[in-house]
Amino acid sequence: MSNTIAGLLGGVIGALISALAMFLGPLAHQRQAARHERDRAGREEIRIQLQRIARVRTAMRDWHDFLNNVLADLEAGRSVDPERFVSESRALKKEARAASDELLGGGLWVGSQQFGAFDQVTGVLHTLAGGIVGRDGRTLRADEMPRDRVRRWREDLYGSRAELNERLLAYVDRLQGTPVDMIDTGGPVRRSGV
Pseudo-torsion of CA 165, 166, 170, 176, nearest 10°? Predict the structure, then answer.
């Protein structure tokens, strides 16, 4: 009789283990699949945020290059069409602000102070575009603008852009969980972990 009970208990325990395995196996697979899906979704969110950051960097570079070229023209005594300046600078400013606002979708807010020198130089040049005109009544001239002020504005623009880039790179480091190496022939090289 003890062999019969042992066999019966063995059969019941075996059936319970099989039933438990049939229940836990798919459950473990579902958990693993859900974990993989969360990881994939997280990687996708990071990829989208990196694209947003690239858009901000491109918009700021375009705005910077435009203002820098206008200042270089003024510094060299060349005229600038005020209507064209106002139109293009407004469009570039609008794109930079729209791109930076999109970063909020990924949890990053770019405050207005990050546009400091860009806003300042654009505003001053907008004012000048309405006040300093050439003999033809259409062109913005730098004849009365001190060249050292124009040089300082160019330095301020570069400083604002460099500061924003550093902050964006630090954010990318945190976002990816790994430092970003930077190669920049115009300045010092930023190394991983620094």
Answer: 40
